[in-house]
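Regression test case RT-17, inverse folding.

Input:
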């Protein structure tokens, strides 16, 4: 097996905000700026839709196969219960069906979750150009782009009640995942302990107090994403 696909990679650990990390973030930013640049092109919108579908499906299949091939697949880590894992499947369903019921999830949870994962990915020993590094940024970058896609090309517009419903729904989902954690001895959504790699969790108190902080942060992120719509409305009214 190519050393860039090995499970015990020794080519260099991931460096937070190192050059490869910054380059990967820059690529994600440039890709998403192109959505706005060609927002009026129907053909470009169709290309984005199918491009996202290919990236999301292929990155998830590759992730599952790599974990199986390296003997790392386990039920307590590989179920799609993490936020971005769930959003991968939800985004695919949204792209295939075009059902707008999924758009609030793609916008709020997709952008919110993917942003945190892109800024502080829990990659551990897997630095660039290992498969895990590349897959992580392709997958989470596609989830982030999906959130913008529903706004730019599907014209999703948020209402305040959306963030209230989503916040309640997210807590119900977290409760369900917490029960799964108790049954499997897992740590999905990092409800049991913080991730071992450097992440935003490191700035929060220890368990269980960081869970309360996360509640506030989740609502804050939802509100900021909602407020972006309000800014656009205010600017439009002034003109």
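Golden output:
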């Amino acid at each position: 097996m190519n050393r860039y696909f090995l499970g015990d990679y020794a080519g260099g650990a991931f460096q937070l905000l190192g050059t490869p990390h910054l380059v990967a973030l820059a690529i994600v930013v440039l890709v998403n700026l192109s959505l706005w640049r060609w927002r009026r092109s129907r053909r470009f919108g169709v290309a984005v839709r199918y491009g996202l579908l290919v990236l999301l499906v292929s990155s998830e299949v590759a992730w599952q196969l790599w974990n199986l091939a390296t003997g790392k697949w386990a039920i307590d880590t590989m179920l799609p219960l993490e936020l971005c894992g769930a959003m991968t499947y939800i985004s695919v369903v949204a792209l295939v069906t075009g059902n707008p019921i999924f758009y609030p999830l793609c916008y709020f949870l997709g952008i919110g979750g993917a942003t945190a994962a892109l800024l502080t990915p829990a990659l551990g020993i897997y630095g660039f150009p290992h498969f895990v590094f590349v897959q992580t940024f392709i997958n989470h970058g596609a989830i982030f782009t999906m959130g913008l896609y529903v706004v730019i090309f599907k014209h999703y517009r948020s209402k305040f009640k959306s963030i209230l419903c989503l916040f309640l729904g997210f807590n119900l989902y977290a409760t369900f995942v917490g029960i799964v954690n108790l049954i499997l001895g897992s740590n999905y959504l990092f409800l049991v302990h913080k991730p071992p790699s450097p992440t935003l969790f490191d700035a929060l108190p220890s368990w269980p107090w960081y869970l309360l902080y996360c509640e506030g942060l989740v609502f804050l992120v939802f509100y900021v994403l909602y407020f972006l719509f309000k800014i656009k409305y205010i600017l439009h009214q002034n003109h």
